[in-house]
Amino acid sequence: MPTLLHLSASPRGASSESLLLAEEFLAAYRAAHPDHEITTWDLWDGTLPAFGPTAAHAKMAVFAGQDLDAAQRDVWRDVTAAFARFDAADHYLFSVPMWNHGVPYVLKQFIDVVSQPGLVFAFDPATGYRGLLRGKKAAVVYSSAVYAPGRGPAFGADFQTSYLEGWLRWAGVADVETIALRPDAATGDVAAGRATAQANARAVAAGF
């Protein structure tokens, strides 16, 4: 059975524009694909492991083909379990609010946890990186309260889209659809574009 994993990077629940758009997507996806399984990973729920010094040393040991010590094996078990949860899905939906022109830190933590040699990527000294998440596809819901294309630098910059989509493609996910809710460039009104973004979410989901 094909599976879709929704990865939520917003902690704001029913107040979250990105989550509300994600719900529009999921409702349309269920209608279009009643035989598919849908699961959700709230990245704020405490199940995402930390990626600190021990994990960083373990990663470099794996990269170098070295043995891990006991502490490194423990943390590496948590890292590979998180990757397995992610990799089990065929399709992904990310809901991503803009924080400080980029993504919430918990999404960066998720990326740092799962982006491991032999899991998300391979590396060859002559040819460079090769993404291993082949045959998967992703839809990304973006929201922002201030930034919008054309509003000028005083209203922020978009490191959100370039960062996440750059990572997805680096990891091997070539099929990426985007849904964005931005404030109106002239008025700063987010509500004006909500219906359009919702319709876009439903359309992408129906063909996903």
TrEMBL record:
<keyword id="KW-0560">Oxidoreductase</keyword>
<keyword id="KW-0288">FMN</keyword>
<feature type="domain" description="Flavodoxin-like fold">
    <location>
        <begin position="3"/>
        <end position="197"/>
    </location>
</feature>
<feature type="binding site">
    <location>
        <position position="10"/>
    </location>
    <ligand>
        <name>FMN</name>
    </ligand>
</feature>
<protein>
    <recommendedName>
        <fullName>FMN dependent NADH:quinone oxidoreductase</fullName>
        <ecNumber>1.6.5.-</ecNumber>
        <ecNumber>1.7.1.17</ecNumber>
    </recommendedName>
</protein>
<dbReference type="InterPro" id="IPR023048">
    <property type="entry name" value="NADH:quinone_OxRdtase_FMN_depd"/>
</dbReference>
<comment type="subunit">
    <text>Homodimer.</text>
</comment>
<dbReference type="InterPro" id="IPR050104">
    <property type="entry name" value="FMN-dep_NADH:Q_OxRdtase_AzoR1"/>
</dbReference>
<comment type="function">
    <text>Also exhibits azoreductase activity. Catalyzes the reductive cleavage of the azo bond in aromatic azo compounds to the corresponding amines.</text>
</comment>
<dbReference type="GO" id="GO:0009055">
    <property type="term" value="F:electron transfer activity"/>
</dbReference>
<dbReference type="Pfam" id="PF02525">
    <property type="entry name" value="Flavodoxin_2"/>
</dbReference>
<dbReference type="InterPro" id="IPR003680">
    <property type="entry name" value="Flavodoxin_fold"/>
</dbReference>
<dbReference type="GO" id="GO:0010181">
    <property type="term" value="F:FMN binding"/>
</dbReference>
<feature type="binding site">
    <location>
        <begin position="16"/>
        <end position="18"/>
    </location>
    <ligand>
        <name>FMN</name>
    </ligand>
</feature>
<keyword id="KW-0285">Flavoprotein</keyword>
<comment type="similarity">
    <text>Belongs to the azoreductase type 1 family.</text>
</comment>
<comment type="function">
    <text>Quinone reductase that provides resistance to thiol-specific stress caused by electrophilic quinones.</text>
</comment>
<dbReference type="GO" id="GO:0016655">
    <property type="term" value="F:oxidoreductase activity, acting on NAD(P)H, quinone or similar compound as acceptor"/>
</dbReference>
<dbReference type="InterPro" id="IPR029039">
    <property type="entry name" value="Flavoprotein-like_sf"/>
</dbReference>
<keyword id="KW-0520">NAD</keyword>
<dbReference type="GO" id="GO:0016652">
    <property type="term" value="F:oxidoreductase activity, acting on NAD(P)H as acceptor"/>
</dbReference>
